[in-house]
Amino acid sequence: KTWKAGMRGIPNTVSDITNAIVYHVQSTLARQAYNLDNLGAYQAVALSVRDDLIVKWNETQMQYTRKQPKRAYYLSLEFLMGRTLDNALLNLGLKQQYKAATHKLGFNLEDLIDAERDAALGNGGLGRLAACYLDSGATMELPLWGYGLRYHYGLFAQHIAPDGSQLEAPDPWLDTDNPWEIPRQDVTYDVRFYGHAERIGNGKAVWTGGQEVLAVAYDVPIPGYSTNTVNNLRLWDAKPKRGFDLNSFNAGDYDRAIQENSSAETLTRVLYPNDNHMLGKELRLKQQAFWCAASLSDIIRRFKQVEKPWSEFPEYVSIQLNDTHPTIAIPELMRMLVDEEDVPWGDAWAITTKTFFYTNHTVLPEALEKWPVPLMEHVLPRHLQIIYDINMAFLQAVERKWPNDRERLARMSLIQEGEPKYVRMAFLATIGSAKVNGVAELHSHLVRETILRDFVDFFGKSKFANVTNGVTPRRWLDQCNPGLSNLITDAIQKPKAVWLKDLTLLKALEPFAEDSVFLKKWALIKHNNKKHLADYIKTHLGITVNPQSLFDIQIKRIHEYKRQSLNLLGVIHRYLTLKAMTSTERKKVNPRVVIFGGKAAPGYFMAKLLIRLIVNTARTINADADMKDILTVVFVPDYSVSLAEILIPASDISQHISTAGTEASGTSNMKFCLNGGLLLGTVDGANIEIAEEVDSNNVFFFGHLTDAVEDLRHQHKYHPIPVEERSPALAAVLKEIEEGRFGDPTIYQPFVDTIRLSDYYLVTDDFDSYVEANKMVDDAYVKDPEEWTKKTILTVSRMGKFSSDRAIMTYAEEFWNIEQFAIKF
Ligand code: 26M
């Protein structure tokens, strides 16, 4: 029997739901229904939905405890959840009822949904992927838990200063009550830092002294779509172990008394805002160690309930490491087994290496985590000893396989020699895991051929796999684009509860590409989504954009490798070309709206400078009367999950134009295509697999391939040729910037110089073919609008592979060896 709302006390009739909401208004919030604002109404509705989630959460967890299936744990320092209310209502199948109930109370449900703040506990792709995987895990009825940190401040809010530059403001998202978490003051663990580790023989040691901090669990229920399963995301908060030091307090030294206190609480204060860049900060290392130690204590406590020998631990537990951020969990599990549970070292290592799995998300050298040995010795003295012991045994095995190969030993050592020495976390994650994977075919290939090449030689190929990323079609189609989702449902004659769980069924849409009535309906939905975005842009930025234009969108973290620079330089080139035309010629041109969005890491000078140039270029172009209704440029500030839900359904074209070989996968490329936006991209990451699926006719590719990149960089360095010779078109663009057309050129000189003088990301090499590709886009869009619409239908119909359900099932079957476990009601 499958679960239905209304069972086990979950209200499902409109009047029951209305009563539940009124109850929360009056009793939980202690407010009156007649003078309630949208925020208050949102909170009452959320509390009512939370009650529903908790009923199913309890049932799910009870059945897991009773049957003890093998479980998987997803360790991620980031879960970029966005908003929860709409998603929860859709997954529970209660949206219509709540719409009616809130209407009865005098509210519009969509306004209440909009009152929720985003949970921005992540930077970008890696964090959003973790959120999609939780949704898919629950939907596929897998016993999968997430573990992360309860940051009090999420990713900073982005403002644009009058001069066009990015300003960062804190994101105190917990200042308004968070109804989606359940505090568990009873689930706590001690975590130690600093102090002294003394070896006592047999590989064991005793670690004492230092600082002890308390980890407190907060549980976030994760409902599956149209299932009974409600899984758990457990986030740790840090608390001082003892309130405060009474001695100092009594002696009148108040500052000293609360010092230890505040030091504990800084641990979970804020998410580090770096993306694809390593930063060797002590507090970041403590965040990692704190979260890993608490999560493992919790996992071990649960394992002890089954009363099985330690050797069976990997039969009950698999742990996925989301990048190297949780790698310290490997020595931590060794420490717990060896020092605290008396498991012999060799047995402990066998257990550990069957338990962990490591996903790599980048091959950029500056993003690979390395911690200075002196820092690690100071903060985690016992872990460093264990790392040295692991390294010793490992290098002995390498020496046995390749005797007298000192260079190889130096290359493969967990310790990078130098002053100071560094611990190489990707290597530790690799040797401590049963499997290692990249996130798209090309990326996994590069992992095997470059950063982990020696390790492939040592362990053999079978340990190194690929799992191409995916996205949840619930949030990224049904929730953000209900018009399209409903049209698809009508067309393919399958209930949503069926096709949204088996996205390959979208292929039944293909024949509709030849149905002219359907084409019109399809095009109208896109048009309405564009109008919706145009409204947003008008109200928030005061810029008028014409929904008849081609909407061209690039939204992602601002980073040199992602080449928003190429997009901007292309926009300026377009502007110059249009300016050179007569006004009659211009009237014939296909109008375009180019939209940028994304945050720069606060310490990333070049990325912040680029934002400033984008904003000021947009101002110049939008103020030019010649460009009216022909070219409009918009920088949407404070890009977020919720903004993505408005932007993605409105795109005709989206840009994914990283230097070949640099973008591990990309996931927004999948979201755009799933919403009928076509790709303009390089042959990189998951773009390649998208083109394989949807047919390369439906993708606009340009630029050099991965193979060429190394040689080109070599040429740049040793045989530089001036931009004027390599791309006259680009040289003309740079000249305009340098002559001050978009504001004081001295400000932008460092940007122009990187392109002119080093150009590590090969903007000059790809510029002309990028301009060409854009012409192809214009032609395809203008010459035959119906053909364009067909392309978008065929694209959507062939996107089935990119559901995160497929990805999570691959992890479940090929890595974790866990089974689907239906919750019975
Ligand atoms: C590291 C050290 C200190 C502070 C922060 C970090 C850090 C944080 C996030 C490093 C990397 C981070 O994220 C990298 C990331 O988002 N990678 C992206 O992962 C996506 C999901 O697999 C891919 O689709 C993207 O291509 C990849 O760039």
Automatic annotation (TrEMBL):
Keywords tagged on the record: Allosteric enzyme, Carbohydrate metabolism, Glycosyltransferase, Pyridoxal phosphate, Transferase
Organism taxonomic ancestry: Eukaryota, Fungi, Dikarya, Basidiomycota, Agaricomycotina
EC number assigned by the record: 2.4.1.1
Species this protein is from: Dacryopinax primogenitus (strain DJM 731) (Brown rot fungus)
Any one Gene Ontology BP term: glycogen catabolic process
Enzyme class of the recorded protein, top EC level: transferase
Name this polypeptide is given: Alpha-1,4 glucan phosphorylase
Source domain of life: Eukaryota
Alphabetized GO MF terms: glycogen phosphorylase activity; pyridoxal phosphate binding
Protein family: Belongs to the glycogen phosphorylase family.
In-chain residues carrying the UniProt-annotated modification N6-(pyridoxal phosphate)lysine: 671
Catalytic reaction(s) noted: [(1->4)-alpha-D-glucosyl](n) + phosphate = [(1->4)-alpha-D-glucosyl](n-1) + alpha-D-glucose 1-phosphate
GO cellular component, one term: cytoplasm
Pfam families with a match to the protein in the record: Phosphorylase
Chain's role: Allosteric enzyme that catalyzes the rate-limiting step in glycogen catabolism, the phosphorolytic cleavage of glycogen to produce glucose-1-phosphate, and plays a central role in maintaining cellular and organismal glucose homeostasis.
Cofactor(s) the record lists: pyridoxal 5'-phosphate
Stored InterPro entries: Glycg_phsphrylas, Glyco_trans_35, Pyridoxal_P_attach_site
